[in-house]
Amino acid sequence: MTGTKVTGFDAKKQTVQYVNEDGYxxxxxxxxxxxxxxxxxxxxxxxxxxxxxxxxxKDHATRGGSYDTGKRFAKExxxxxxxxxxxxEWISLKGGGxxxxxxGNVISVAEMIDVVPPDVLKYSxxxxxxxxxxxxxxxxxxxxxxxxxxDPSSKQRNHRxxxxxxxxxxxxxxxxxxxxxxxxxxxxxxxxxIDSIVKNLEMEGYANVDRASLERRVEYALHWVDKFGPxxxxxxxxxxxxxxxxxxxxxxxxxxxxxADKLSPNMGSKLIHELIYQAKTDCGVEPQVLFExxxxxLLSKKRGPRAGMFLASLDAGFVxxxxxxxxxx
Length: 329
Prior knowledge:
Layout: E1 5-10, E2 15-19, E3 25-29, H1 38-49, E4 53-57, H2 66-76, E5 84-88, E6 91-93, E7 97-98, H3 109-112, H4 118-126, E8 134-136, H5 140-150, H6 159-165, H7 177-190, H8 193-203, H9 211-227, H10 250-262, H11 269-283, H12 287-299, H13 307-313, H14 316-327
Parallel strand pairs: 4-5, 6-8
Antiparallel strand pairs: 1-2, 2-3, 6-7
Helix pairs in contact: 1-2, 4-6, 7-8, 7-9, 10-11, 10-12, 10-14, 11-13
């Protein structure tokens, strides 16, 4: 493995003497300890630590690779039976290929547990067979993964992987994480805090939600939005009527006036959703056209979260005033 040969060791001076393949002799300090070359270090650790099972990446499993040479070193030098191998694939980053710290194509564990419970992060690995590659997407698919972990009835859920991944014992709250993402942003924009989120959830039929678990998920939700959230899911509630709202069509403004007249405090998302579709009959405006008008009036963009849930989460007085303002512009 190397042309350098150790010829002696001075315990008092803490040095090692050597001669290389060209005949050059030298002495180097080993004060504070030293390290074997990788291919020898690995099997040495097997013997020292009593390793019987060793998972490793596919790059070490190639013919003539680290594991092949490690087996010979273990048997012929250390007199130790090599551990059973478990070869695993690499984790790749969505749109970026295999994760590599040297290439800067990596998301650290510290960064990830800031946006997702550690249980879910571990589950994302545990649910996949070791010899299958993992494409990690920190965007919207991550929200689905959280719901899959939390929901025992999910058909995609791997119950054994959940059992093996339970770390924090953070109680499931039975609320879709995407819903929490929307409510958390609205609460941040309006200064409503956790109480406003609890109130909105109760209006939607989510009773007796574990408050501690909810608060922790709100933290994760806001960190996720700020770091990985796609533009269409970000909510920036406009304090003043956006200029773009003045350019809405006459029909859109008429439909917003219709909603302003019909909306009432504490109206649930289901009723608001039905009201938006009723506007087609009463105002002749297609739901998709009205959705766009709602988002432009409140967010200054043409897309946003589910309209019924979004409007139910906002103060009814604020929404009515804004829609009336836009319809009169």
